[in-house]
From TrEMBL:
This is ADP-ribosylation factor-like protein 5. One of its GO terms (biological process) is protein transport. SUPFAM superfamilies: P-loop containing nucleoside triphosphate hydrolases. It comes from the Eukaryota. Belongs to the small GTPase superfamily. Arf family. Keywords: ER-Golgi transport, GTP-binding, Lipoprotein, Myristate, Nucleotide-binding, Protein transport, Transport.
Length: 123
């Protein structure tokens, strides 16, 4: 165990303004920093301990789906994108983590509302 360090590849995805970069920077730097939305897609690699956060699905061990719990208007879009992701053949053996972000903000969807709206029980 002492000499066996396994590297894991993880992709972080989510709609704009979900909190992907802020969460990654918190993990990487250990502190919350103010971020600004990228004008286009942001492709950035990050290594934290023995975990490599990747920008492409191929060969990834896990996918973290980040959702803004206050984004009630786009819940159907989030569901469609989640199920599109799950159907991809490269994801058949990957672990999927659904990160319900911004739950501390007023009027955020509860975990029960999110679970029902996204049909998470059928995954």
């Amino acid at each position: 165990m002492l000499f066996s360090i396994k590297e894991y590849k993880i992709v972080v995805v989510g709609l704009d303004n979900a909190g992907k970069m802020k969460s990654l920077y918190k993990l990487h730097l250990g502190d919350v920093i103010t971020t600004h939305p990228p004008i286009s897609s942001n492709v950035e690699g990050l290594v934290y301990k023995n975990i490599r956060f990747e920008t492409y699905y191929h060969g990834t061990h896990a996918v973290i789906v980040v959702m803004d719990c206050t984004d009630r208007a786009r819940i159907t879009l989030i569901k469609d994108e989640l199920f599109r992701l799950l159907r991809h053949e490269d994801r058949q053996h990957s672990v999927i983590l659904f990160f319900a972000n911004k739950q501390d903000i007023k009027d955020a969807k509860t975990l029960a509302e999110i679970t029902d709206a996204l049909s998470l029980r059928c995954i």
